[in-house]
Amino acid sequence: MKLFPALFLACVAASCLPIREGEALCLQERSSEPFVVGDAATLRVGRVDADDFFCADENSRPYRWHSSDAGVASVDGKGRLRARKPGKVWVSVAQDTLRDSVQFLVLPPVARIRIEPRGGRIRVGESAVFRIVATDAAGNPVPDAEVEWFSGGLESSFYGPGERGPWSFARRGATRAVWACRPGRSSLQARTRYLEDRVPLEFLPAAKPGAAADTALENHSC
């Protein structure tokens, strides 16, 4: 498997250790994507050298794997990681004198997500803030649940004045501001790796139609 040069740069900047001149190991999974308790994944690793800007998949080669806290996440001799309880853990891999390590975040299991408030009306040029409420199987709150937000149509945008980006582009976070671009109806969606919720939204004409509304949206991604 090949990765793009941008990921190679991330590997080098993050934690690849060039023990040999012009050569390093690189774990292809970086720490930007958290695991959830119960998740399992086979980590991929490859060599980076001066003649190759990519991390080549070298899983056929023998590696030594180690977890800094097997209670949070364990890793076996084949690089298979299993998330066991919430927390942070460093996973390292070595081959001869080459090493790399990455810190992973393990999140609590989430049984339900709910967007609050349950919909609303927003005037063109204005915004409203929504938040995610996540709970476990017993109904207890799960803080810092990792969710992605999606806009259901061209009537709204996640980008405010001075920002640029596609209307329905996914954005992460526990809260999300939604800007009204044009009158109409749409929906707001929030997703985890396994769950989804959505609420209806209605977008009303600007409070002051005409030049004032146009000016308000001039510096807006709408």
Q: How many separate structural domains?
A: 2
CATH class of the largest domain: Mainly Beta
C-alpha termini separation:
38 Å
Number of strands: 18
SSE pattern, N- to C-terminal: HEEEEEEEEEEEEEEEEEEH
> Uncertain runs with pLDDT below 50, 5 residues or more?
1-20
- Helix and strand content put the structural class at mainly beta
SSE layout and pairing:
Layout: H1 5-14, E1 23-27, E2 35-36, E3 40-42, E4 45-49, E5 64-67, E6 73-75, E7 80-83, E8 87-95, E9 98-107, E10 112-116, E11 120-123, E12 127-135, E13 148-151, E14 156-157, E15 171-172, E16 175-180, E17 184-191, E18 196-204, H2 211-217
Parallel strand pairs: 2-9, 11-18
Antiparallel strand pairs: 1-4, 3-7, 5-8, 6-7, 8-9, 10-12, 12-16, 13-15, 13-17, 14-16, 17-18
Protein name: BIG2 domain-containing protein
Domain BIG2: 59-100
InterPro entries: Big_2, Invasin/intimin_cell_adhesion
Description:
Residues 1-20 have low confidence and may be disordered. The protein is mainly β and 222 residues long. Helix content is 8%, strand content 42%. The chain is built from 2 helices and 18 strands. The strands form 5 sheets. A 5-stranded mixed sheet has the order 11-18-17-13-15, with no helix packed on it. The chain is elongated. The longest helix has 10 residues, at 5-14. The protein folds into 2 domains: 5-107, Sandwich (Immunoglobulin-like), CATH 2.60.40.1080; 112-217, Immunoglobulin-like (Sandwich). Strand 17 (184-191) and strand 18 (196-204) form a beta hairpin.
